[in-house]
Amino acid sequence: MFEDPDRTPPRDALVQASPSLVVLEVDGRTASAFVATAEGHLVTSLHAVAGARSIGAVMADGVRSEVVQVVALDERRDLAVLRLPVPDMVPALALSPQRLPAEGESVYVLRAVAGPAPEVRALEVRAVQVLGDWLTLLELTRTLAEESSGGPVLDARGEVVGVATAALANGRSLGLVIPSRYVMPMLRSTATAPLSVLEAPRRRAGRVRNVPQHPLTVLEGASMGAVESIASTLGQAINVGAPAYNRGDVEGCYRLYARTAEQLIDERGDCPGAQRALRDGLLRCVELSDADDRAWALRDAFDGLLDVIQRWLASRPQAPSGRKPPPKQFLN
């Protein structure tokens, strides 16, 4: 099944890739996956299998198998590698970690479905988002169905350039591609663990975000320079704090966020709306005793400001030459 007949997909590559796709049946829902090694390493999105008590794998030829082993997890990049119980059940789909499609290029998202032919969507890359040295990803022009998460993404040459992810950012649905180069180290792991290791990511993924939705008037009277400076400072704090949080230094992440909020409150008298938003975030922390909750309270405050800044900059008649809106925050 090919969704967009106006674009010519790499059909030989699709035919070659199709037998490697696997439908995952996870506690009553489905997700996509694909086999990436002869040893049966199965690549998918972590959020698609987080908390799974049982995982069934349905191959393109209809053969079913139970997945009981986890090889590697990457919570920061929403990746999981599982293992089929028997190697060489289906052919492996080679990854291409060298090249990343550029803005405006076409990619093809493969969604595993029952039967030999996958669903294929032709989409364009809206933007290449650099969220720090820990992650570069592709944002697509359209959203993806949740069942597409974990499927391979091909470029116009038929090379597998990444893993499809249906994501949310500030309440908006997004279609993302996590580049193949982040999967390669996970495939080299020889360790295995039971499905119970997927429970911790489920608990973290289940956290309810409380990101404020500010009107554009919150930035009323602020200059372009002041707004961009605030966005830059917030982005830098997140790019340091989020990896620290993911390493387990929750208290360090919270302290960094708190210092950043206090610094901006002291220095940005030219943007009182941003000061108020950050004070509200700090006041929320006073009522919270757990460092994890406090870190997320400030992260919510930061993301709310970044969201309104993004919208405020987009509403300007014309951005100054060479300046871009701050990057969206997706997976931190």
Automatic annotation (TrEMBL):
A Gene Ontology biological process term: proteolysis
Any one Pfam family match given in the protein's UniProt record, by short name: Trypsin_2
Keywords: Hydrolase, Protease
Domain of life: Bacteria
Name of the molecule in the record: Serine protease
GO MF terms, alphabetically ordered: peptidase activity
